[in-house]
Structures are given as structure tokens and as C-alpha cells.
Amino acid sequence: MFVNRREVQIQWGDCDPANIVYYPRYFAMFDDSTSTLFEVAGFSKQDLVRKYGLVGIPMVDTRSKFYIPSTYGDWITIETRIESIKRSSFEVKHNVYKGEALAIEGFETRVLVGRDPVNPDKLKSAPFPAEMVAKFTGS
């Protein structure tokens, strides 16, 4: 499986009055991590649009399990990978580490989306391109 790791420093604006990360901020970090995963794998947003005719990769489901809080100034490592790929949907997993300890598990279900060929004003799920499947799954 293709994995991307990125280091993130917790900023003042990420925290609530108790000085811990306000949980929706993690979902923004996860979104950035998924975009970065595609970019590092060689599939930039421009490639998704130009080469594959996609409009985006919207999230249709998300959830997290929180184990260890983070506070202002902490460094965390977000490890992101695609766990499974179906025709057009895929499962993303984010493991967040604080030092060596697993702090958070994040889960997303996303869908590749393009314009509906019958009605370009509408969006429609699009099949996962074979070269993308190969890159993310290692097969």
C-alpha cells in the first residue's frame, strides 16, 4: 500500500479554550492529508481534472477515534493510506501519531466524481483509473 506521512505542528487557531485541538480541525487536516496523498502519488488536482476528467474526490462519510489529545505547539505525524478501492469509491485511513503513540484513527469514504456525460450540469461517480489503483494498492 502507498503511504504518505506528513508532520504537522498544532497551531494556536487549532485549539479550543482548554488548549486542546478542537476536533473539527483534525478533519481539515485529514482532508489536506488526502489531497497530499494524491499529489505525492503523482496525481495532482490538475491531473485529476485534465487527464481523468474528474471534478473532485468528495467525502461521503467520515469518523474518528480519539485516544490522546494534542495541544498548541505539539508536533503530530499524520500517516495516510487508501485502505480499499471499489469501482468509484475508496476508503482512506489516517493514523495520527504523537511521538510513537497512536493518538487518533481517522476514516473517510470518498468518491471519484466527474461530469455526467448525459447532463454536464450534474455530477456522476467515475471509475477509478487503473494506473491510480496500481499506484495506491501496489498491484
**Largest sheet, order of strands side by side?**
1-4-5-6-3
- CATH structural architecture: Roll
- Counting DSSP E segments of at least 2 residues, the number of strands comes to 8
Number of domain units: 1
- Helix-strand topology string: EHHEEEEEEEH
How far apart, in Å, are the first and last alpha carbons? 9 Å
Query: Which whole number gives the mean pLDDT?
Result: 95
Kindly identify the CATH topology: Thiol Ester Dehydrase, Chain A
Given as residue ranges, the uncertain stretches (5+ residues, pLDDT < 50) are none
What name goes with the CATH superfamily? Answer: Hotdog Thioesterase
Explain this structure.
The protein is α+β, with helices and mostly antiparallel strands and 139 residues long. The protein has one domain (1-135): Roll (Thiol Ester Dehydrase, Chain A), CATH 3.10.129. 22% of the residues lie in helices and 40% in strands. It has three helices and eight strands. The strands form two sheets. The protein has a five-stranded antiparallel sheet. Strands 2-7-8 form a three-stranded antiparallel sheet. Strand 5 (89-98) and strand 6 form a beta hairpin. The model has no long low-confidence stretch (mean pLDDT 95). Keywords: Hydrolase.
Task: Quickly describe the structure.
The protein is an alpha+beta fold. It contains three helices and eight strands; from the N terminus they run βααβββββββα. A hairpin with a 7-residue loop joins strand 7 and strand 8.
Task: Please describe the structure with a list of short key phrases separated by commas or semicolons.
Thiol Ester Dehydrase, Chain A, 139 residues, alpha+beta, 5-stranded antiparallel beta sheet
